[in-house]
Design a protein that fits this description.
alpha/beta, Purple Acid Phosphatase, chain A, domain 2, five-stranded mixed sheet, 15 strands
């Protein structure tokens, strides 16, 4: 099983640039083209939030238009830039479309089970899970303790050292950590929000955040670091289930890097 994780696409209406500078539409198109060029196509594509930049119906319509060439199953969870009701209206067939409350969901019937969490707190950049959300996560994880599982969410349940991002992470991360610590079948916790590929550990479980296919958060570890982005190479993640080994995560760097070159010729390393 191969899972593509694309995060923080921040799609705007056609012709508009994020922060007046970033052409997020072209960036998503380049990301999908890069994915399409891979030898092995993923079984599904999981978008971990900030699909749109301001969560308007027009932005979601544009997002759907840009996704049209994809031809793969798509799963969505919201980020702080998204709007639940606008997402429900845009995807009326989604599992959460006709349910009130948060847009949690579970992707079943694959070797890896994926639990998608909605950490959005309307009006805030930061994320939160209420006691009932944590109870739902706990009981959903307990349903299939023998099945390798991914927990996917937008807000990181850890601090990364970039203070302005840490200020808007999952604000009750210790409560989340206590739940995942009880479930050793969690192979990986996936998040977005940080616009950088970052690895951490929460409740004894490995966590990775995805880069954005558009702009990255500037790495500035100063305590008073201002909130800034940088056009470092864009990317996305591929998560591969390797039987008898486990889940491995490949960071994909979007771009055209030319041909593939052999290491060997006639069975010998090229000197
Ligand atoms: Fe974002």
């Amino acid at each position: 099983m191969l899972i593509a994780q694309i995060s923080d696409t921040h799609i705007k209406t056609p012709g508009r640039l994020a922060y007046g500078q970033v052409d997020t539409s072209t960036a998503l198109t380049a990301c999908l083209a890069h994915l399409a060029r891979q030898d092995t196509q993923p079984d599904l594509v999981l978008f971990t939030g900030d699909l749109a930049d301001f969560g308007t119906p027009d932005e979601y319509a544009h997002f759907k238009q840009l996704l049209a060439p994809l031809g793969l199953p798509v799963y969505l969870l919201p980020g702080n830039h998204d709007d639940r009701e606008a997402m429900r209206a845009a995807w009326p067939d989604a599992p959460w479309a006709r349910r009130p409350g948060r847009l949690h969901s579970v992707i079943e019937n694959w070797p890896i089970r994926i639990i998608c969490l909605d950490t959005l707190r309307p009006g805030s950049g930061g994320g939160h899970l209420d006691p009932e959300d944590l109870a739902w996560l706990d009981s959903t994880l307990a349903e299939k303790p023998g099945q390798p599982t991914i927990v996917a969410m937008h807000h990181p349940p850890f601090l990364c050292g970039v203070t302005h991002m840490d200020a808007i992470s999952l604000d009750n991360a210790p409560d989340f950590a206590a739940v995942v610590a009880r479930h050793p079948h969690i192979q990986r916790i996936l998040c977005g929000h940080l616009h950088r590929p970052i690895h951490a550990q929460v409740g004894g479980r490995p966590v990775v955040s995805a880069p954005s296919p558009a702009h990255q958060v500037a790495l500035d570890l100063a305590p008073d670091a201002p909130s800034r982005f940088i056009m470092e190479p864009p990317g996305y993640l591929l998560h591969l289930w390797v039987p008898r080994s486990g889940l491995v995560t490949h960071t994909m760097v979007i771009g055209d890097y030319g041909a593939r070159h052999p290491f060997f010729k006639d069975g010998s390393l090229i000197d």
